[in-house]
Write a structure and sequence with these properties.
By secondary structure, the protein is an alpha+beta fold. It has 2 helices and 2 strands, in the order E-E-H-H. The radius of gyration is 30 Å and the shape is elongated. It starts with 25 loop residues before the first strand and ends with a helix.
Length: 97
């Protein structure tokens, strides 16, 4: 796969940033300019191998073991409906249990 990214800059800039277009980490970097006819003139080029992108795995692999505390909405719902029989999923749970 080939991707070309052209970044305009000026002689007064000291740095330019581009997003990496490749996961392999292999780049061919060309420094140059366009002449009056729009033809690109290469001043220097370099082949760069940064190595493949490594995506770190999350530290906690067991996502389902985490017991979350009920949120504010859930706590308010439980307080408001503690003494009410309002039907819905609560009734279904009572019938199964």
């Amino acid at each position: 796969m080939t991707a070309v990214i052209e970044t305009e800059t000026s002689i007064w800039k000291e740095a330019a940033t581009i997003n990496m277009p490749t996961e392999s980490g292999k780049l061919m970097l060309e420094l140059g300019y366009r002449d009056a006819d729009g033809i690109f003139i290469t001043l220097e080029f370099s082949l760069i191998d940064l190595g493949p992108i490594v995506v770190p795995m999350p530290q906690d692999q067991d996502w389902f073991a985490v017991k979350e505390m009920p949120g504010l909405h859930q706590r308010m719902y439980e307080l408001a409906s503690k003494n009410l029989s309002i039907g819905g999923s609560e009734t279904f749970q009572d019938l199964r249990g």
